[in-house]
Amino acid sequence: MTFETILTPELTERFTASGDWHNKTLTDFLDQAAAATPSKTASVDARRSVSYAELKAQVDRCALGLLELGVGPGDVVSIQLPNWIEWLVVHYAAVRIGAITNPLIPVYRDREIGFMMERAKAKVLVVAADFRGFDYPAMIGRLRPGLPSLEHVLVVGAGPDLADGFASWEQFIGTPWEERRDPAGLPALRPDPNSLALLIFTSGTTGQPKGVMHTHNTLVAGSLPWPDKLGMDNSAVIHMASTFAHLTGYLYGVSLPLQLGATGIFQDVWKAEAFVELVERHGIEHTSGATPFLHDLLDARNLAEHDVSSLKRFCCMGAPIPRVMVRQAHEELPGMSVFGGWGQTECGLVTMGSPTDPVEKIISSDGRALGGMKIRIVDLDGSVQPADVEGRLQIQGPFLFQGYLGQLEATRDLFDGDWFDTGDLGSIDAEGYLKIAGRTKDVIIRGGENIPVAYVENVLYEHPDIDAVAVVAIPHPRLQEIACAAVIVKEGAPEFTFAAMQAFLQEKGVAKPYWPERLEIVSDFPRTPSGKIQKFQLRDRFTASESATHAAAANTPKETR
Questions:
Q1: Contact 27, 59 (CB under 8 A)
Q2: Three-state helix/strand/coil letters over 335-378
Q3: Of 355, 368, 420, the residue nearest 393 (C-alpha)
Q4: HSE value, Cβ hemisphere, 13 Å, CA-based, for 242
Q5: What is this structure's pTM?
Q6: Domains of the chain by start residue, with CATH
Q7: Strand 100-103 relative to strand 134-135: parallel, antiparallel, unpaired?
Q8: What are phi and psi of 441, to 5 degrees?
Q9: Among 82, 84, 124, which Cα is nearest to 107's?
Q10: Which residue, among 21, 338, 64, 19, has the nearest Cα to 194 in the 3D structure?
């Protein structure tokens, strides 16, 4: 498969000369760490741990096995696994031989996986046999007729009764491929650092997800500023609970610990009480996650019972940090700094706060630009705006992606020269601190994760009883925003209930985090003279009614997902 990108020789020369692109791949860092500290613990997940020597050996064997399966440079390997060491092994092995990794979030179901894998043309897929009660091989069995490029499916934790067309991961990784292929040939397959490394899908704002293409250089560059800015080195112990298939989990879980030669501690399911125990057991110093993770940590029932003094930094991403939460963190965990940052799948984390920032900056801004990245605010005509004036946020620099899969012209349309239009609104103060004010894109951010509004609306429009639908954000005390579906039911249709909506979305194979958590049946929508739905009026109406409901029934239990 051919991947067209916007990468030019001029960009390559520019970022190489500036030192922002180091022309390294993740396996270069793996080889260095395995040679320097072979017995050091590299990774710990919920099931096992590996040293750097063990990790390298498994990666090399997996790389040889992928070659035996016919995977070569430029082929796509999809991974739908929790935050397990197997995820790292498959990805690093793909890097080793110049293949492209396509991460798939574990909660995605038939509809998302079918679309993404068909677009990616993956040759190999690695899935769990079961995770949190879901049968992944059964889903792939349903989808496989529509995935002609998919030749091999490896199942982690499979029992003896695998269906035809599926193979055991344990058997695959236990096969001595080195007896068939000479491992000495692997270095010759090292990819050009400017070739594609990652094809990761972001939420679509027009109804379909987009395949974001990153090279080895853009990904490595996105993690490199962290050690200098936060004082990290190879002694660091870094935690990650966000899925590796999200760019946050990838950059600061899959990539950062390896680049430092440090130790990564990974959770496959976020539980604050379990995290507290991990901090004490492993001496975790740093974690990154959405703001609700901080909320949960501060409310953890066992927080006072464990020594968490090693935890020095909590970087919150995806939503503002409430003032009360920062104050609570300072009171309950005085040795831990809390700060935020802003980024997207297209660019990783572009701005970040600092442990030394004043509290006012932490709660009112998303930090300043990181290593080599530049930010600016423009008006609708593209004119650069002065400090503290709100407008469209544009960025440029070495972390930027190299195009949307199969949408080269659509990619170029989002650039003004070298400046990428993020679709976010914000302002930059005189000291360079960014403050995100809103979005021009129709996306709801639920607990730091994007809900693609148009995508959900398009699915609901398929329901035979729905005449019109608008999905809007309403505030939530923990998740910041949740989705509310406002629905106009067709005349004569039976009652449309919240349970009926959930059952329909499940039938359509929509990932559960995308399901609206509130349903409002309305007779009509507020509209502009041209007929466009005025979603801000719906948001205001439902927010007001939610506040009234909370006031009237503060102690009534509510259904949660």
A1: yes
A2: CCEEEEEEEECCCEEEEECCCCCCHHHHHHCCCEECCCCEEEEE
A3: 420
A4: 26
A5: 0.85
A6: 25-192 (3.40.50.980), 443-552 (3.30.300.30)
A7: unpaired
A8: -85, 150
A9: 82
A10: 21
Beta carbons of 310 and 279 less than 8 angstroms apart? yes
Decide: 139 and 110 in contact? Cβ < 8 Å. yes
Nearest alpha-carbon partner for 266 in 245, 294, 292: 245
Q: Which residue has the tokens 């985090």?
A: 513
Tokens standing for residue 214:
């990153």
CA distances 87 to 77, 211, 248, 249, Å, are 11, 20, 15, 12
Neighbouring residues of 75: CB distance < 8 A, sequence distance ≥ 6: 1, 99, 100, 123, 124
CA distance 543 to 285: 38
Contacts of 248 (CB under 8 A, 6+ apart): 242, 288, 289, 317, 318, 343, 349, 448
Q: How far is CA 155 from CA 135, 166, 292, 314, in A?
A: 11, 7, 32, 34
The whole-angstrom separation of Cα 195 and Cα 1 is 13
Contact 286, 238 (CB under 8 A): yes
Report how far residue 43's alpha carbon sits from residue 55's, in angstroms, rounded to the nearest whole number. 8
Distance from C-alpha of 79 to C-alpha of 126, rounded to nearest angstrom? 5
**Are 488 and 526 within 8 A, CB to CB?**
no
Q: Could you give the maximum distance between any two Cα atoms of the chain, in Å?
A: 72
Kindly give, in sequence order, each residue whose CB lies less than 8 Å from that of residue 115, ignoring residues fewer than 6 positions away: 208, 209
Tokens, residue 130: 């079961």
Distance of CA 437 to the CA centre of its chain: 21
pLDDT tens, N- to C-terminus, the chain (561 residues): 679 999 999 999 999 999 999 999 999 999 999 999 999 999 999 999 999 999 999 999 999 999 999 999 999 999 999 999 999 999 999 999 999 999 999 999 999 999 999 999 999 999 999 999 999 999 999 999 999 999 999 999 998 889 899 999 999 999 999 999 999 999 999 999 999 999 999 865 445 789 999 999 999 999 987 767 788 999 999 999 999 999 999 999 999 999 999 999 999 999 999 999 999 999 999 999 888 889 899 999 999 999 999 999 999 886 667 778 888 999 999 999 999 899 999 999 999 998 889 988 988 899 999 989 999 999 989 999 999 999 999 999 999 999 999 999 999 999 999 999 998 889 999 999 999 876 666 678 888 777 878 788 878 988 999 988 889 999 998 888 899 999 999 889 989 999 999 999 999 999 898 999 999 999 988 875 545 677 878 888 998 876 555 444 444 433 333
What the block records as the tokens of 148 is: 């002609």
